[in-house]
Amino acid sequence: MTLPDGREAERELVLHPGAVAIIPILDDGRILLVRQHRHAAGKELLEIPAGKLDVDGESPQECAARELTEETGYEASEWEELLTFYTSPGFTNETITLFRATGLRKVGSFAPGEIAGIEPIEPGSARRMVATGEIADGKTIIALLLER
Predict the structure, then answer these.
(1) pTM
(2) Which of 36, 46, 78, 134 is the most exposed, having the fewest neighbouring CB atoms within 10 Å of its CB?
(3) Beta-strand (E) ranges in the chain?
(4) Is the pLDDT of residue 139 over 70?
């Protein structure tokens, strides 16, 4: 590849179809987080629900609705698209479109195997959980900063 100054350089890139993430807010104001094992991190992480745009013809909001139900067992009646951001632009073109989901109602259970559990948290607890490393996932930290 050619750098902006004209020099040639070699880069390894991970091409990605994009993803969505959801801030699901219960009627009492608590935020639903999911606990799931992340192989690359070598441990379980507490995260907002998220998923890859990997279904042909599916819009980001449709993907978000599907992922919310699969990962939490909830559906939302109200959706707000908040922003789209790059996850790690030094090596991948992956973007995540972040949604806020409200008007939640329980319609089933979360996907067994992928998700270890659902943990509703008080919005006021989020900053402490980030500061102590209890929440260490980047997309979740961004989402929680927006919900302050």
Answers:
(1) 0.93
(2) 78
(3) 19-24, 31-38, 43-47, 50-52, 74-86, 95-106, 117-121
(4) yes
